[in-house]
């Protein structure tokens, strides 16, 4: 599963980079950044933001929609996996606030709510039953 996710993330990041030289780069922590600390590469087209992230313990793919005319509020969806609490994957709805706007450099923060899947062995072994649990997360990042 992790190998497939990593290959998908690399392919997505490559496509985002080749699609435009105007891709935005951010660093941060939270599910949207692949877990504890990660790199997020996004592409904004109109009111739509697509992103791929790779972090120290996982990765994520997502979509956000800009809600307001000042472009500071977005809602979206993130899918991914990370080794600490969701090695079998996660899916969450997201809210983001961008201090300068969704397509400009600056701080961003927000929250996520959804589901995550993990087994009894955690990140160290694939043993026991796989449980689906609630996911509630906060994220903080800086876009360059």
What does this structure look like?
The chain is elongated, with a radius of gyration of 15 Å. It contains one helix and eight strands; from the N terminus they run αββββββββ. The protein has an eight-stranded antiparallel β-barrel with strand order 1-2-3-4-5-6-7-8. Strand 3 (48-55) and strand 4 form a beta hairpin. It starts with a helix and ends with a strand. The protein has 144 residues and is mostly beta strands.
Quick summary of this structure?
The chain is mainly beta.
Write the layout of secondary structure elements.
Blueprint: H1 2-19, E1 24-30, E2 35-45, E3 48-55, E4 58-66, E5 73-82, E6 86-98, E7 106-119, E8 130-143
Antiparallel strand pairs: 1-2, 1-8, 2-3, 3-4, 4-5, 5-6, 6-7, 7-8
Percent strand equals over 45%
* Mass-distribution shape: elongated
The largest pleated sheet is described as:
8 strands, antiparallel, barrel
Mean pLDDT: 84
- The low-confidence parts are none
Task: Measure the end-to-end span.
Answer: 31 Å
- Gyration radius (Cα, Å) is 15 Å
